[in-house]
Design brief:
Length: about 170
């Protein structure tokens, strides 16, 4: 099956986002998010953190439409592939995996819009978006939200100074 997956992979620039996605997951698993940032260390909390860092990467890729569009497509495919595998490992059956994946992609899209808008807005917008999306409406306190907002802004700044080639190579900070 992996032969078919690699056979049908796009061969365009930015087609292979495995290194970028691995760097995103590693960044989303940093203990500080869950300790100092009080992100729930649950399946949902970990998903929300991966979705947040993935959204930041997609926002960065949007800024380079010539090369970023193909990279963003492949990054989204890598996200879907990972979520599919995670659901199956968790015991979700074949019949409902697609429905769950659809909800996850929709959630990623919602977070992408919320974080894009919040990062472009004035102070406090990102923190509000994080409480609504990352913390699912449960305010963990201003220090925790500030910790995560500052961390995501640092991730964004690290990605901003990288080319699409560097990002696709897994260099996000």
């Amino acid at each position: 099956m992996s032969f078919l997956k690699s056979f049908f992979k796009s061969r365009n620039f930015g087609a292979d986002a495995d290194a970028l996605y691995a760097a995103i997951v590693a960044a989303a698993r940093r203990p500080g998010w869950y300790l100092d940032g009080r992100v729930p260390d649950t399946m949902d909390g970990r998903f929300d953190m991966v979705a947040a860092v993935t959204a930041i990467a997609l926002i960065r890729l949007e800024r380079d439409p010539e090369h970023g569009n193909a990279a963003a497509t492949r990054l989204t495919e890598a996200f879907v592939d990972d979520m599919d595998g995670q659901l199956r490992e968790a015991g979700v059956g074949d019949v409902v995996v697609g429905k769950h994946i659809g909800k996850m992609v929709s959630a990623l899209g919602g977070r992408l819009t919320a974080y894009r808008t919040a990062l472009a807005a004035e102070d406090g917008a990102l923190e509000t978006a994080l409480v609504r999306n990352l913390y699912r409406g449960v305010d963990p306190g201003p220090a925790a939200v500030a910790y995560v907002a500052g961390g995501l802004r640092r991730v964004e700044a690290g990605m901003a100074c990288r080319s699409v080639v560097e990002l696709m190579g897994g260099h996000i900070a």
